[in-house]
Design a protein that fits this description.
The protein is mostly helical and about 110 residues long. The protein has one domain: Cytochrome c-like domain (Cytochrome Bc1 Complex, Chain D, domain 2, Orthogonal Bundle), CATH 1.10.760. It has five helices and no strands. Helix 2 packs across helix 5. The chain is globular. The model has no long low-confidence stretch (mean pLDDT about 90).
């Protein structure tokens, strides 16, 4: 019985417990920091070394860029480079990424 009590106490001290549920914005931040920040910037409101600032980008743009490395009809790119490659494994996370980028956008 002492071992169980010790484990329970250790779990409480270490913050172990049931997994927490992340919001769409939190999941999107994880996706962004893992897959986008290295080119675009850790702060999506600022341009990166390779990619432009993308905070507040509409879902249609995010989806076309992530899925096909293309642009929606009528969109004029911020940069003339075409270095981005499709990231199709992010398809299930487009909504989360859009939610995060919208949440951090600095509105003027």
């Amino acid at each position: 019985m002492g071992a169980i009590a010790g484990f329970t106490m250790a779990a409480a001290i270490l913050g172990c417990g049931p997994p927490r549920t992340l919001s769409a914005v939190q999941r999107g931040e994880v996706v962004y920091r893992t897959n986008c920040a290295s080119c675009h910037n850790r702060n999506p409101n600022l341009p990166g070394a390779i990619g432009p600032a993308i905070a507040g980008s509409p879902r249609a743009l995010i989806e076309e860029r992530v899925m096909h490395a293309a642009y929606p009809a009528g969109y004029h790119p911020q940069r003339g480079t075409h270095l981005m490659r499709p990231l199709p494994w992010l398809a299930p996370h487009i909504g989360d990424l859009t939610a995060y980028l919208d949440s951090v956008a600095v509105r003027h």
